Amino acid sequence: MAEDQEVQQEAGVNGDQIEGTGRNEETQEENRWTDELAERLNILHNATMRTGRVTNADLYEAYRVSLEAERPNRIHMFYAFGLVLFVMVATPILCEVFQFLLGVRCFVPNNYLVWEATRPISDCRFCRGVRGPLVLHNLTREQFAPFAYSSQPIIIKGAVSHWPAAKKLNYEYLKELYESVPGALDEDCQFLHFRSDFMTLRDVFQMSEERAKFADGNQPWYVGWSNCHPVILSELRKLYPRPHFLPEDAEMPNTDYVFLGYEQGAIMHLDYIPRLMWQAQLQGNKSWVLAPTPECDQVCHSFSFYVEPGDAVLVDTRIWYHGTSIPKGQFALTIQSEYG
C-alpha cells in the first residue's frame, strides 16, 4: 500500500515537471518571435532612415496622428452605441404616445390626419361647373326630390324657421337639460372644441355667465358635440322634427350634432361620415367657404355663401372641403344631422 502511494506521488511530481517544461517552452517560443519581430522592425526603421526621405520628426508625427485618430473612433462608437440604445428604449414609448394622441378626440379629432392621408381620389364631376350653392325657397318633399342626393350645395330659405327650437333652444336651455339628466355629461359623445380652450362639454357648461354671453373682456368661444345620450336626444328632438323636405325613405342616424358659440367657426376640413349632411341655422348668421379637393383644383372652383336664421344647408361634406365663421360679436346655434 505504501509503495503504491510513493508511485503516485512520484508520478504527480513528474507530471508537474513535464507541464512546467511545456509552459517554459511556449514562453521561450513567444519571446523568440517577439525578438525576431523587433529586429525586423529595427532593420526596416534603419533602412527607411537611410533613404533620407523620412526623419524622426516625421515618424513621431505619424505616431501622434494615429493616436488622435483612434480617440474619435472610440467617441463615435460611444455615440453610435448610445443612439442604438436610445432607439431601442424610445421606440416603444413613442409608439404608445402616438397611439394615445390619435385616440384623443381633442388632439386629433376622429383620427382626422390618418383619414385625410388615406382618402380615395375624388371624381371631379362632383364639382365641375359649380360656382355657388343652389338657393331654393321652402318647398315640399316632392319638389326637393330631384336635388335630394345631389353633390350640389343647397340652401333652402326659411325651411326650419317654424321649428320650436328656433325660439327655445339656447345655451341656458342646453345647460339646464344636460345638468338635469344623470350621467349626460359623462357620456362618451364626440366633442369638438375647435379653437376654444374647452376640452369637454362639462367645461362648456361650467364657464362663467359673463363668458357664456361673451361680455366685454372675455374670449370668444365656439364648440360642437354629438348628443348621443338617448334621453338628451329624445328631449331635443321634441324641439326639431325631421326636416319635412327629406325623402321619406332616407335613413337618419341615432345622433345629431349641436354647434354654438361666438365669432369663431370650423377650419377647412372634410367630414368622414357615412351619409349626406343637413344643417339647420336656428340662431345667428354663418358664413361658409367651400373648396374642391386638391386634385380637382384645375377644373373646379372655391366659393362662399351666407346663411341666415331659419335656413337649411345641405352639403356633401365628404367631398367638399368646408369651413365656417360667425360674424364678429354674433352668437350662432345650429343643429346638424345626416341622411342617406
Automatic annotation (TrEMBL):
Residues 142-296 form the Cupin-like domain. Keywords: Membrane, Transmembrane, Transmembrane helix. The keyword Ubl conjugation does not apply. Residues 22-32 have a biased composition (Basic and acidic residues). This is Cupin-like domain-containing protein. InterPro entries: Cupin_8, JMJD6_ArgDemeth/LysHydrox. The keyword Transmembrane helix applies. Residues 1-32 are annotated as: Disordered. Signal peptide: none annotated. SUPFAM superfamilies: Clavaminate synthase-like.
